[in-house]
Each structure stands twice: as structure tokens, then as C-alpha cells.
Amino acid sequence: MATRLPPVHALSAFEAAARHNSFALAADELCITPSALSHRIRLLEDFVGERLFSRDGRTVNLSEFGRRYLDVVRNALRTLIEFPMPHRGAQAQPRIKITVPPTFARHLLIPYLGSFIAEYPDIVVEIFMSVPLYDLSLSESDVEVRFGAGKYPNTTTEKLFEEPAFAVATPGYLSQIGGIKTPAELRKATLLRSALEPWQPWFEAAGLDWPEPSSGLRADDLGLLLELIRNGYGVGLTRKHFAQKMIADGELVQLFDISLTSPPHAYYLVYEQKPYERPEVTIFIAWMKKTFNKL
Fold it and tell me: Per-residue DSSP letters for 207-231?
């Protein structure tokens, strides 16, 4: 079919919102956040090129076009629902959608996730990636791990853990620049940058009255920053659980005995403010806190 079809998840969101005359109640029914439901409605409005609802504060009412389109949508959804499927008898598995920063997923979530799967084999886990400091609204995920300052309005936000930040480089790079014995000798090094791991707090801990570096390679992903360090592009800041294996294997060297025990950012567990009615989500939140609060 060459003709582009409207997204079914947006159609179901539209039908539920029209039936309840409320985005919040429709979101409850579909087990998504109100912001995710609003996103689906906007997606459908962009598709049809018309406003489906008129909004007056918290009240939503169907537009004239929305009333006419609702009949078409309900007929289409009814056809899909009533189509006979004789082999579909088993109940769908409970599933959880989680969104996490890529480096957290690679170095922490994946290594520990086996214990959750072993304990709850019937719960399907779906993992999505986020960009720290950029994705600031709760998406269609049930649970998110965010790296930041922990100020996320209209959500429940619980700190998972902080990780000390410290300076590392490869032995080859250190040899190339003649070695570094004191923090002041970092002047001769290339300092790799990231908005997620600013240098200035570390400078202060090291007794250096230096401004934040404004030139040189920058990567706003901690995994990419670590790869830049590992490939000998300069000195960078990293964290214990990300670099400990590379340090143990001799790929990286920690410079100095200076770590930020209270960095400006931490990892937070973020989910809807209201209590969840889905037991699988409650179970996963409890597992995350039990597993990562002890790090």
C-alpha cells in the first residue's frame, strides 16, 4: 500500500480521550503518561492536518472535525477488534518499558539485569536509550533512569546513586606528553570535555583556580568520552563503574588520588508521581532501588 496510514496507537489514544473527555483518564486507561497521550494526539493531528480537540484549561472537547473523524476511527478500531482470531487465547505477558542513558545501560543495567530476569522470567523488559540532560519529559516509558540534577517536575524522582569522578588517561598518552605528576601539569595535556562531566568542580577539588575548558574534543555521551580517553586523545573525567575494568586491565591509569565524591549530577529513578496500578512496574522499581542504591 503506497498510501500512508495513521498510527494505530495514536488512533486508540484519540478514541479514548474522546470517550472520557479527558486526557488524564485516557492515559490511565492506556497505561501511559498524560504527556505521552498528548504526544500521540499531536501526532494524529499532524497526520490529518486538523485540530481534533479544542482545549480550555484542563477541559478538552472534540472539534467539529474531531466529531466526524471519531466515527470513522471507532468503526476502524471495531473492525480490528472484532476480527476473529481463533488462535489467540493466551494472555499477553506483562511488560515494562524502561529508558536509560546508553553508558548506564552498557556498564550497569545489562550486567545486573540477569538477576531480575531470573527472579521474574514472565515479565518482558524493553530497553530504550535516552540522551542525558536533553530528554527532560517523561516519555512513553514506564520508568526512566536519568543523569542530572534531580529536578524533574510532576514526577516521582528518587536518587539511585552518585559515582566519584576522577581523571584518567592511557599509559601511551601519558608517555607521549612526558608524564603527569601533579594536577598543575595538566596544562600540557589535552583535556577532553563533556557537559555531563564538567572539569571545574574537579579543578576546585585539586586546588586549581582554572576555568572550564572551552576548546578541544567534546562528547556529550559518557561512553563516547570514555572511548576518546581509551583511544589516547587526551585526559578525561570518568567514573568508577565505567572505567574500573579498563583500569584493572591496564588500559587506563587513574591520575592522582582526587575524586569528586559529590559530583554535580547523579543517577535518578524517574516515574509518574501517582502510584502505579501495574504490579510489574512496581516490582521493577523496587528491584532497581534494591540493586543500585547499594552501589
Answer: T---PPP-SS-B-SSHHHHHHHHHT
Q: Would you state the cell numbers that stand for residue 114, as one nine-digit string? A: 540477569
Residue type, 185: E
pTM: 0.63
C-beta atoms surrounding 227 within 10 Å? 13
CB atoms near residue 1 (< 10 Å):
4
- The phi-psi region of residue 198 (left if phi > 0; otherwise alpha if psi is between -120 and 50; otherwise beta) is beta
3-class DSSP assignment, residue 158: strand
Rounded Cα gap, residues 255 and 186, in angstroms: 10
pLDDT one digit per residue (tens) for the chain, 295 residues: 445 788 888 999 999 888 888 888 888 788 788 888 888 999 999 999 999 998 766 668 899 999 999 999 998 888 877 777 666 555 568 889 999 988 899 989 999 999 999 999 999 999 988 876 555 555 668 899 988 788 887 788 899 988 889 999 999 999 999 999 999 999 999 999 998 889 999 999 999 999 999 988 999 888 999 999 999 999 999 988 899 999 999 999 999 999 987 666 788 999 875 555 678 888 999 999 999 987 7
